[in-house]
Write a structure and sequence with these properties.
This protein is α/β, with parallel strands linked by helices and 274 residues long. 20% of the residues lie in helices and 25% in strands. A 7-stranded mixed beta sheet has the order 6-5-4-3-2-1-14. The protein is globular, with a radius of gyration of 17 Å.
Length: 274
């Protein structure tokens, strides 16, 4: 399986020059299975370029392209109206997040709301592609490509889910927008057990985290603790704070690597083969 980062920034896009090396788009990741089928993790502003790249490569998968959401906060869905493949009537997308223990509006209405005429000229039902909004009351399933998927709820305002993807003995874990509290969440550690690649929220420094309790995010130190406890092979620091410039983040990466050498900053355009 292969992972390609299209958006690694948290909270809001930052297009300024001092953010360009790590990237300013909000969360979006392309997941490619060993069979060549693709899926998408979150639909932040990075999904715009992801869609353009799929079209440029004349990607021929038209059915059951899943978009798995960690949650539906603005920075994780705001790129969806600019996702060009969703305007192709030949394509079929499954937009999904577990409904188990989740409260609030149904998934389709959330996407419809952000594309109301007050906010966007094209409503979701006029985009063209077939859209299935799937909010299952299960947290484990197998995709058509044969990838075993496990979802696990964690602490974040409004709720959020982490995902574990396993294929041919390789494990990818995606765990963003998580606040651990006074101790590391054991459910996050269990989800991340022996991951070949753990993508984990690392929005704050340990010092910043003290002032951001209740904001729903982790420090890089907590991301390392999860990786250590879970025995993860590699750790991608993710959901970078919009006020953290490239130079700030590279210093943070160095500090993190002194404790966990297999840690690195997730960067837009980065591809990782598992």
């Amino acid at each position: 399986m292969k992972v390609t980062f299209y958006g690694t920034r948290g909270s809001t896009p930052v297009p300024e020059q001092e953010f360009v090396r790590v990237g300013g788009n909000t969360p979006c990741i392309l997941f490619t299975s060993d069979t060549g089928r693709v899926g998408i993790l979150d639909a932040g502003t990075g999904i715009r370029k992801l869609g353009n790249d799929l079209l440029a490569r004349s990607h021929e998968q038209y059915d059951n392209i899943f978009i798995a959401l960690s949650h539906t906060h603005w920075d994780h869905i705001q790129g969806f109206p600019f996702f060009q493949p969703a305007y192709d009537p030949k394509r079929h997308f499954i937009v999904t997040i577990p409904e188990k223990d989740r409260k609030g509006k149904n998934l389709e209405s959330i996407f419809s709301m952000q594309m109301q005429s007050e906010y966007f000229p094209v409503p979701v039902e006029k985009m063209g592609a077939y859209m299935m909004f799937w909010a299952p009351n299960i947290t484990r399933y197998i995709t058509r490509a044969g990838v075993d998927v496990v979802a696990s709820k964690h602490n974040h305002p409004g709720g959020a889910y982490g995902y574990r993807f396993e294929e041919a003995g390789k494990v990818l874990v995606y765990c963003t927008d998580v606040e651990h509290g006074d101790r590391i969440d054991p459910n996050v550690v269990a989800l991340s057990k022996n991951a070949d690649l753990l993508i984990h929220d690392a929005q704050y420094t340990p010092e910043e985290l003290k002032e951001k309790k209740g904001w729903g995010h982790s420090s890089w130190e907590q991301a390392v603790e999860v990786a250590e406890q879970a025995g993860a092979k590699r750790l991608a620091l993710f959901h970078h704070d919009p006020d953290h410039t490239d130079s700030f983040l590279f210093k943070m990466e160095e500090e993190c690597q002194r404790r966990f050498p297999a840690a690195f900053l997730s960067r837009e355009g980065m591809e990782i083969e598992l």
